[in-house]
User: Fold this.
Amino acid sequence: MIDGILQGVQVVLDPINLLMVFVGCFAGTFIGMLPGLGPISAIALMIPITYGFDPATAMILMAGVYYGAIFGGSTSSILINAPGVAGTVATAFDGYPMAKKGLAGKALAIAAYSSFSGGTIAAVFLLVAAPALAQVALSFQSADYFALMALGLTAVAAFAGHGQFLKAVMMTILGLMLSTVGTDKAEGIPRFTFGRLDLLDGISFLLLAMATFALSEALMSVLKSDSVDEAAQDAARGKLGSMRVSRAEVREMIPTIGRSSVLGFFTGVLPGAGATIASFLAYGMERMVAPKEKKAEFGQGSIRGLAGPETANNAACSGSFVPLLTLGIPGSGTTAVILGALISYGIQPGPRLFIDRPDVFWSVIISMYIGNVILLVLNLPLIPYIARLLAVPRNYLVPLVIFFSLAGVYLVTFNTFDIQMMVFVSIAAVGLRLFGYPMAPLILGFILGGMMEENLRRALTISDGSISFLWERPITFVILIITTLVLTTPAISALRAKRRTAASKAA
Amino acid sequence: MSRDTVGALIFLAFSLAYGAATFDIHLFPGAEQAPFTPQTMPIALAALGIVVSGAMIFQSLRRTAARDTLAATFGGKNWSTVFLLAGLMVLYGLTIREAGFMLSTALFLFGGFWVLGERRWIVMATTAIAVSVGFWTILSPLLGIYLDPGIFRFLSEGG
Assistant:
């Protein structure tokens, strides 16, 4: 292993490869900031450029673009509440409120430090445990994935403010319902398409995320533009604020980063799970373990609420390389594109990759360390300039955000029906927000719905229609126990607190 | 009726409609015996939706604390501006192919600035044109993404 690491270092420190890390991170960050051009598109755009390169060089470039794009997606999540990448949706929950309070610089800095930490820690895990982890990933079956998705849905409890739990659950159900629109994957039967060809592919994630976050936020700001609160927010919005993170804030972030790196990496290792579910799980976990006074800050600009998902999504990116490099199984859509690129270079990823092509294997892992450093060094000085975006007057900022969102979705499918759909969804989202329903559980339900149904169908088919798979498989059973505990613990704690209050009053 | 009760009633109606629509999902012959069909998840979700919205109605009717009314929630807001912006978005969707990306984007942005109260025509026009040309330049020549030329296609064909 030491020989491999040294070989990887030697490859990466080649001037051309160092340049590729730099170019990849820069291009990835820029492209990731544009909704509709996430890491998959960014990497796909790079592939023709890499045909003339050495495979190790090409992989280094694509890896840099991948986590650069994740970081870029976080930037638009924080500044304009427009998460262009599924893995950065959870970043907006506390990143955007922080920016609205005039702390955009600090929010971006926290995102940068958290991304760096998550990516670096995960790269260490990757270095040490890649082959062993690959075997663990293989042992996960459909029943286990279903249980994991159910655990992911419990993060809905994190979005429920006082007395809002039922509303969060209802929005999750609505998200699950929206995920059933389109063609049933197993049998090819159209569901809820009402005869429209445009709905055969279902509703795209990007459309829903842009409409419910960016567009509805822009329309809400117009709706309430005469209110005193909005005027105060406008005044605060343009302020960058200090980028300095105080010692107390760093001390608060450290345990969050530690927990979220581990969670993110191991979730990313599972094929199909990825950065999205990792970031939601991290958000839910942080809210659950936070002390009472810190819990109230979630959704209002909490440092833990921002650092957790940011760390987890970058750690998951590194984790998703484990099945790719060790088994030749892509762990996410992005690594599927990378797999296609590797095959086109004449390299077969799989168990023999680190024997036959150790230069490719180790250089990708080592490049992650260097890439994370470059991302931090590159982006921190740019933060004051990027954050200036918020200082644009509302009369100009709102139409620009709307254009950004509409164009971003249009560029994916070039279908004008999607634009009309976005208008409808955004008006509905405004109505739902006025009724007091949170949007985050909707996205969570939507993302997990398709995967849950697929895995549940497979698990039931394997067990011949019996639900005994829920307790027969140890991994499934343990995850479901954790899910039950996560769901019931807040209610039990609230009940015990009520009884204690009643008892002390009686005394 | 309070805001929360009306919201819950809307969800109840939606869940019932969703449940009714599940029976339009065709199944292949013999699929009725399968443990999991394309109808299974939608039926379960419809049932869950009805139960949860019922619980929300019950909770909102039991609440004795001061409740938001519909008038307070929806009144006194800039609905006309919002609907004008929504109309502009619909128009953008209808013209992006025919008029082309650059022209429709510039017109949308110009219209959006005007709707929100901006009246400095030169600044509005300059910003709208700069953003649309800038985005076209990044997306088309630089990244190689095809964008509809719209009316500029006819101009170049006629020339």
